[in-house]
Predict the 3D structure of the following.
Amino acid sequence: MASSSSSSLSRVVVKSSDNNLFVVNKKVASQSQLLKQCIDNMEEKGTNDVILIPLSNVTSNILTLVLEYCEKHADFADDDNNNQELKQWDHEFLKKFDYATLNSLTMAADYMVTKSLLNLCCQFIADSIKDLTVQQIRQIFDIKNDFTPQEEADIKNENAWAFR
Amino acid sequence: MNNMNTNGSHIEEIPSEIMLDILSRLPTKTCLKCKLVCKEWYEIITSDEFDARRSSYTTMLLRAMSYSNRIDFLLIEIDKSSKVDDDGNLIVGVDAMMRFKSKITVPYQKLIVVNECNGLICLISYHKWYPYIILNLLTGEQVIVNQEWRSPSCLSEVYGLGCCPVSGQYKVVRIIDGYHGRVAEIQTLGTNEWRTLGDVPMHRHVRDDKSNRVFLHGSLHVYSRQDNCIWGFHFGDEQFMQIPTPDEIEREREYSCLSVFDSCLCFTSSLDNQQCGIWLMKEYGVKDSWVKQFVIEMVPIIIPHMHLLGLRMDTEDILVYSCHGTCDDKSKNWKLLRVLVPKGYH
């Protein structure tokens, strides 16, 4: 770990599961409660070293995305949450990914305790489920139907009241 | 960003806690559909936890009514994100409409939604000692809570359905108004037995207050015009408590209603000059935290229908009025919602 000349931490180094290093400034890192907690702990100890935070569950591809999100949101950190430009950006940001990436991003947001990103991902996935048929949901998310025909019929029967 | 898919995960890798979060954001009918996707989703959707979580995202606005010769009820679900056009019209899709048939015969052909709690709905008939019907939308299950006939001078007043935040048990509270004053009784679902809770401090309700109940933080709330306060009944400690109304409401108001907005207790009441005020209790239970969030021009008579939908049958359409969920924080522009129900759903 390199020694820093500044009196309080201004940057941290984050390591992905595939051993890539990312230098992240403190304001950006603070968007993640997990990173923020690490920084706070180190500052409490009075250390001046740049700290290294290993994230064993997040690959560098996904970490890049989380940090892109954090960077954008750090820029708007002083604004209120209702910033239209930011909302638009959020939407465009998620639209780029396939479902497999979205799933990973969701889990990374959960792991890194980036609540707003987690919320965003969950809503995005929910919205995309909304208009699909059962078949389409299984197909898009590659989910295996593990019901027997009888079980399936029973559930349909259980649901019948709403679809009459 | 190429190569994205090389790093993705399968949806089954998502922890079930997050999956629950995702699915709990869906409308009821979609949830029913999702029960069929796979066993894991079925387990999540039919769990108690799921019910409890849903209420924080989806707002259920419902009213049931009967049709000329069928005992069939129509439930309409509207969630906060529903799009409304400039005239305040909201076209409800078939997905938001649910028909349900009561397990028991309803004599007066009319059911009323008393309140909604964690996705469970409590319905009553106008008939005096008629059972309550508790409907679980996600499983289609109905629980009938019977009321035994008492002396004719006795009245049974429904208070409503709630859930104990500790045990997760659902309970129904009623008030028996008789010779010995007003006594609250409670029944835990599944026990088939009313327990007495003793005297009730609150005054008798006027008839039209029935649909004006809100479940929040383990308590069911109702505004009492007679007492000019909000009563809460906590389903954990089974006690009534008083919550003060905003200072400005120094006298009782004829037109007022309770709802939940942004997870806060929300009190709407008529002001003078054909206006109405909408207050939010920013910190639950703290009188000084009432904030008058909006003032809107409105005929006060509409207020009682603002949270739960008021429904009326027209020759052509069923029109539902509500003012809920269409507030734009910035412009403070409230719209009177008019929900147009697809034809053929009569």
About this structure: Residues 1-7 of chain A have pLDDT under 50 and may be disordered. Residues 60-75 of chain A form the longest helix (16 residues).
